[in-house]
Amino acid sequence: MAVSPSSIATDHKKHWWVTNRKLVDKYVKDARFLIATRERNDVTSALVLLDAALALSPRSELALELKARSLLYLRRFRDVADMLQDYIPSLKMSIDESSGSVSSDISSQQLSREQVKLLHSDNSSSGSPVHDPSFKCFSISGLKKKVMAGLCKNYDKEGQWRYLVLGQACCHLGLMEDAMVLLQTGKRLASAAFRRESICWSDDNFTLPVIITTQDISSAATPPRNVSSLSQTENISHLLSHIKLLIRRKTAAIAASDAGLYSESIRHFSKIVDGRRPASQGFLAECYMHRASAYKASGRIAESISDCNKTLALDPTSIQALETRAELLETIRCLPDCLHDLEHLKLLYNSIMRDRKLPGPPWKRHNVRYREIPGKLCALTAKIQRLKQRVASGETGNVDYYALIGLKRGCSRSELERAHLLLCLRHKPDKATGFIDRCELADERDLDSVKDRAKMSALLLYRLLQKGYSSVMSAIMDEEAAEKQRKKAAAATAALQAAIQVQQTQCCNSKLEPETGFNDRVNSGENKAATNAFQGVFCRDLAAVGSLLSQVGFNRPIPVKYEALSC
């Protein structure tokens, strides 16, 4: 019997499909065996097998789940987010916002059309329902059991593992709000699947056996599936509680900053960044940036620059951190460093315009939008030109170190030393990398680069503080020397005035003596002692009077008549 070509092609196609399915099953089975060892090298090898399986069957749910969990185990959180980015809520919201009102109207029309299609065509024409002869009565309880039983068989295909795995990855990437939504959704789906599964069980499944056999003991040696799912549920619950705590503190800090309570906002953000439990890299960078804004609003420039440095160490493409640090350096008139940050920001804007997208993956958060970049680039170019003109005119040496240290002009030496000691203890370069110990990096390979950026920026800030201390201290020393000169001149002036007053008193007393008494004393024998006696103003401290007279050059001996000194 002749065989048609179509049947041969069908058999060949079927054979090819069966072969690929067997290969996929083999790859998945080998990957499972390697993952069970929990060794990094074996898990990495399992990823290679899973990639080969997904190349043959891209929609293999089991291969996708194993790959996502393997990436999560290897702490490759960015790869997990890139793999499952369609499930990130904030990314969906940003896409919906960027689509505009026109697309939203179109989507609403399509949605309304789909809702219309759900109705029977005859119901729209007549108000009364059309009786179908095939319609039969049925039991609602029986239908519920059948539906739940069918859903129980396919509850793994609903993909709640996506929400759990992606939620944990988002938590480590700093997307706390997304992580909370995803973990809550995955937990709800898992509990719903467990309820559907329990409906199909008989009452005997919920009771313990009265007689325990050796088979039960041997089966208890290996933990059942429910025990592992229970431990996973507990881990998810603990992670959710920690995420909610961080979100509450961040919300309270932002609310305090919006209300003008900057010290309260700084206190809340400090609880987050200095907490005992480490936080994710992206979330800490965001909190450091918010605290830098609070420091800037409260006038603490050095602390604000330090937090900007930490933000840029964790996220070198943070546009807000570069803008804030450049504004702070311009405020204290440190124009060369300000120009350096603005040039860096200009390069970042140019790369965004070249790539036609914001830096980083699509799920990364930014405080600007792509359509705002051209206008910002034009304004930034003009600002750089103005600053270069100011530098060319010689404004580089007029740095306001008082504002940097946080002191007022005319401060004392003790105030300067106290402020300088606190700033040195807080911003010492040796302690610049201490915050990394409380940070969970998204990729461990970035540890060296983060430390290098933190050390370099902290060293520049420390040198700036040392220059400020020496400059302010020299100004204080000049003021103290000038004050000593003023005091010395004032003392000399006071001594001169006292001497002039003594001379005037002498002249007045000599003019008040009567002429007759003077002639009688000349003829008597006591006139010589009387003329030598000096009757001046009364003074208790004769040594002080003598020193004052010697300072003005009155070296002639003065006989003094001691009278009425018993008081």
From TrEMBL:
Gene3D superfamilies (alphabetical): DnaJ domain (1.10.287.110), Tetratricopeptide repeat domain (1.25.40.10)
Keywords: TPR repeat
TPR repeats: from-to residues: 285-318
SUPFAM superfamilies in UniProt: Chaperone J-domain (SSF46565), TPR-like (SSF48452)
Name of the protein described by the UniProt record: J domain-containing protein
Organism: Gossypium harknessii
